[in-house]
Here is the input.
Amino acid sequence: MASERERGGRWPEPAAAPAAADLARCVHCGLCLTACPTYLVTGLETESPRGRIQMARLIEEGRSQLTPAIQEHWSRCLQCRACEAVCPSGVPYGRIQERARAQVQAQPASGRAALRLRRLVLRQVVARPRVLGAVLAPVGRFGGWRLRGLAERLLPGRLRTMSRQLPSNQGRPFRLEEAAAGNPDGEPVQLFGGCVMRELFGETHRATVRVLARAGARVGAPAGQRCCGALHAHEGDLAFARQLAKANIAAFEGSAGAIVVNSAGCGAAMKEYPELLAGEPGWEERAAAFAARVRDLAEWLAARPRLPRGALGVRTVYQDACHLAHVQGIRREPRALLAAAGCELVETEGADVCCGAAGLYGLVQPGMSAELRRRKAGSFAAARPEVIVTGNPGCHLQYLAAVQEAGVGAEVLHLAEVLDRAWRADGGASG
Amino acid sequence: MTTRRELLAALRRAVGEDAVIWRPEDLAAYEYDGTVERSVPHAVVLPSTAGEVQAAVRACLDLGVPITPRGAGTGLSGGAVPLRRGVVISTARMRRVLEVDPLDRVAVVEPGVANLELSRQAARYGLYYPPDPSSQAVCTVGGNVAENAGGPHCLALGVTQNFVLGVEVVTAAGELRQLGGRAPDAFGFDLRGAFIGSEGTLGIATKVVVRLLPVPPAVQTMLAAFPTVGQACEAVSSIIARGVIPSAMEMMDRLCIQAVEARFRVGYPEGAGAVLLVELDGLAEEVQADAARVRAECLERGATAVRVAASDEERALLWLGRKGAIPALGRLAPNYYIVDGVVPRSRLAAVMERVAAVSERSGLRIANVFHAGDGNLHPLILFDEREPGAGERVLATAAEILRVCVDEGGTLSGEHGIGAEKREFMPWLFSEEDLATMERLRDVFGADGGLFNPCKVFPGGTGCGEMGSHAAAVRAAGPDAYV
Here is the structure.
C-alpha cells in the first residue's frame, strides 16, 4: 500500500491531482472505447478514455513524468463525457480530466504561451460580460453583414470556417431585464443568462423567455449572475471556476423556483457545483441547494402537465448536446417536445456523438474538430433536414458551418426557437 | 539481437510512419486488456490492409520478434497482452463492413469491426449477427473469432464458431490464406474451425465472412427473483427439461445485483438472492405460450416475483444491467478476477454451493454472473491489487474454482479462452499426447517458431520457458536492446 508521502506520484501538484480512488475505479474493461469520438476517428488506445486514465495512472504510480505526449493526449479529449455515460464502473472521468488539466496548467510542457493566453481570455474576457460584449459586438454585427458573401470568397480555410460559424438571426445581445415576463401568478422561474449565450444568442434567450411564459411561468433573472465557469473548469482553471460558482450561487439565493438553463454545458456545470465546491467550508450545502434547482429548459418544460402543441411539419433532426445527453441524461425530453410541436423527427447516425465544438476545442485541436464536424455534415447530407435542433451554443455554431459543408439548406435552431415558432403559430390551443 | 531502432525502422517500412506507436507512455496504453495481466510491448502497429498486416508480420518474423494480435482489448483471458513484449498488431484501423448480402444472409467484414456495429449494419435488412458478448458494443469480430466468443444469446443459437463461414488470415508464417468460404456447408478439412478459438496463436484474421439471421418477429424478456441461487439454478434446469429453449437465460447473484443497482438502477429486486433473466424469441404465439410456461416453472421453484418487460425500453434496461454487470463490480472493489468455467447444467446448484464454500475459505468475496442456460459460470473474485499478496491468493482461489468445475464434469473455459493464466490447467483435461497433437497443428500454420502470441493456451508454452533468460538478456544488453 502506497504511503501518503508517495501518494501523488510524479504530479506537479500532488495535492490537486486526480484522486487515486477515482483512478483505481477504472478496471480497463474497454467498454468506453466506441463511445469516444477521438477513438472512433483514430483507432488509438492513447486517444481513448481508458488510455487517458492509464496516462494519469502512469504519473500516479511514478512510472512517467507529465510528458508532452501525455499532455497532447489529454488535450485531444473533448470532455464530452460520452465515456462516463457508458462506463459500468462509474468512473468519474470528467472529474479526473479536469484535475489532470489543472496539473498541465501547473507544469505545461509545451505551448505555454497559448495556455496562458487562453487562461487570460477566459478569465478577463469570457467571464466579464462588458468586456465580452465589447469584443463580440462587432462579431455579432458581422453575422448579419451583407459582405459575408465576400468573406466567404476571400478568407482562408480556418477563418472562413469561423466566419461560417456565426449566427445571423440572433439580433442584439440579451439584457437580463428582458427576462421579466409571464403570468404574475405563475410558477416562478429564474433564467440563467450565461456569457456567450447572452452576447451571441440574444434571440434564443428571448424565445426562451416567451416559451417559459407560454408554459405558465413567471420568469425573472437575478442580477449579479455570471458566467457558469464550465470553460474554465474544463481548461483546468478550477480556482477561477470556483469563484464564478460562488458568485452564481449567491446571485440566485434570494430568488424562488427552478433555475432554467438553455445551454447544455452551463446546465451540466451548474448541476455539478457541489462537486466543484466539495470541501469548501460553508459552500457545500449552498451548492447542493443551488444544484437541486437547476433544470435544462427541455427538462423543465417536459415536466409540465399541459403545454401548447404545434403543427410545424418541418423535417427536423435533433442533435444531442454532449453535456445534455451524457452528463444530464436528457435525451427523450427534447425529442418529445419537438414531436409535440409538430416536427417530423428524423434520427441521424451519431446524433449523440460530439460535434467537435466542445468549448475552446475548435481552437486548440482544429484538425480533430473539423473531422468530427465533417462527420456531422455527412449525416446531415444523408438526412436532408429542413431544421437542425440543438441545445448548446458551441454545437449551434459548429452546425452552422456543417450545414454549409453538407450543402443542405437547413436552418440551425435552438429548441426554444422551434417551440416559440410552433406555439405562436398554434395560437393558444393546449394539449 | 535486434535494436529498438532497427525494429521501428522495419515496422515503418511495413505499415508507414503514422501507424507505428513507439513512445513509452503511449505503449503503456497497450499493456492490458480486460484482465489483470500486464506487459508493455516494444511497439504497436496499426495496419489498414491485409497487405500491411502481412508486411508487419514478416518484418517481425525476419527480426525474430514476438507478435501479439489485438482487437479492441476487451478480452478476459489476457489474450491480447504481449507477455513476451515484442510487437502488438492492432486491427483497430481495419473496421469496414465490406458487404451485407440480404439474400444470402451473409456479411463480409474487416476484423476490427465492432460486433454490435455489424448487427447495426445488418439491421437495415432486418438481419442480425447472433453471438453477443457483453462487450459487443466495443469488441471486434476479429477478436471474437480468435476467442470463439459466446454471449447471452448463444444458448439457443450457438457461438462464433457456428456463425463464421470463412476467414482470410495472415498465418503465423506470414502467408495470406483463405480458410472456409461463404457457402453454408463446408467440405473437406475444416481449417476455418481450427482457426476459430485459436486465441491469436495461429495468425491474424484480416477478413471474416459471417452468417446472419433474421431479427425474430417477437421478443419477450422476463426477470424472475429467487431467494437463493440454488433455487434459480433448479429453475434453469427444469425450464429446459420442459422443452423450452429460451434465447437467453442469465443469472446474477446478490453481490452482482447490488453492484448493478448501484450503477444503473435497473430495478432488479435488491433483497433477492438471485435474479434470472430469461429471453424468449420467435413467433408471437409461440413466445406467449413459452413465457407462460417459464413463469409457472419459476414460481414453482420458489420465485418471489416474475416481471415481464412491458416495452423495448424496459427490455433494454434489464439487459443494460446484465451486460454491464461485470465491470459494475468495479464499484465494490478496485479489482476483480473473472473465472470462466463450464459445468453440466444439472450440476449448477451443487457447483455454486462449492464456489460459495471456496469464497468463505479464502476470505475473498466472490460475485456470480453467468450464462445459466449453458452452465457457463463467471465467478468474479473481488480484491485490491494494492494489498500485498492479493494477486497470489486470487490466482489460487481461481484455480480452486476451476478445479471444482472440472471435477463436476465441466471444462476450463466457456467463451473467454484459455489465454495466459489457465494454460497451466490444460493437463487437467488433456493428456500430453492430446496437447502434442494441438501443438503439431500450430506447425501447419507456421507457428512452430513460438513467436505468435507466445505464452498463451499451452502449458509452459513454446518459447515461454526462456522468458527468464530472455529478460536477463535484455537487462544485460542495456535499454536500447531488443531481443
About this structure: Chain A is about 50% helix and 5% strand.
